[in-house]
């Protein structure tokens, strides 16, 4: 019976590890901004998780930094600019359009168009070679070779 009580006490003690982040704000606007930023900033360490959804230590640090900057009265854009300066454009789900991102947007399209161009030129080339007919001399030589029975026996 004692072993069961100890096991039961250990089982229920694991819930003590659950952590709830509690933040106090000066205004509802600050709280709204904090929650909005938590859902729009990407965790640099995680695979496609926001800093609000991630349990990574880095995400916890980023949430804390967003809280501190929000409490200090920084605007949403100032906080996003700070995060981009520190972690790069990856931290936002809407990166700006630059030369590097243009390659990502237009590169696949250019590859597909290039493939179509190659297919069209190769088909046209094959069609022109097929349309070329044999001359009358070539036809006579071909008939002579096909009708030559002695050539098969050698």
TrEMBL record:
Start and end residues of each stretch annotated as Disordered: 127-154
Biased composition (Basic and acidic residues): 129-154
Keyword line: Cytochrome c-type biogenesis, Heme, Iron, Lyase, Membrane, Metal-binding, Signal, Transmembrane, Transmembrane helix
CcmH/CycL/Ccl2/NrfF N-terminal domain boundaries: 7-146
GO biological process, one term: cytochrome complex assembly
TM region positions: 97-121
Protein family according to the UniProt entry: Belongs to the CcmH/CycL/Ccl2/NrfF family.
Protein's UniProt name: Cytochrome c-type biogenesis protein
Species of the source: Vibrio ishigakensis
């Amino acid at each position: 019976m004692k072993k069961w009580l100890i096991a039961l006490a250990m089982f229920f003690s694991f819930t003590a590890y659950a952590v709830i982040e509690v933040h106090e704000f000066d205004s509802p606007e600050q709280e709204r901004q904090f929650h909005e930023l938590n859902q729009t900033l990407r965790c640099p360490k995680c695979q496609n998780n926001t800093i609000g959804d991630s349990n990574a230590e880095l995400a916890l640090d980023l949430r804390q930094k967003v809280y501190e900057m929000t409490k200090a009265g920084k605007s949403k854009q100032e906080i996003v600019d700070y995060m981009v300066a520190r972690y790069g454009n990856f931290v936002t789900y809407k990166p700006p359009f630059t030369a590097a991102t243009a390659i990502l947007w237009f590169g696949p399209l250019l590859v597909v168009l290039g493939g179509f161009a190659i297919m069209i030129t190769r088909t046209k080339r094959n069609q022109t070679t097929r349309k070329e007919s044999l001359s009358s001399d070539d036809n006579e030589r071909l008939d002579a070779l096909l009708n030559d029975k002695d050539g098969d026996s050698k």
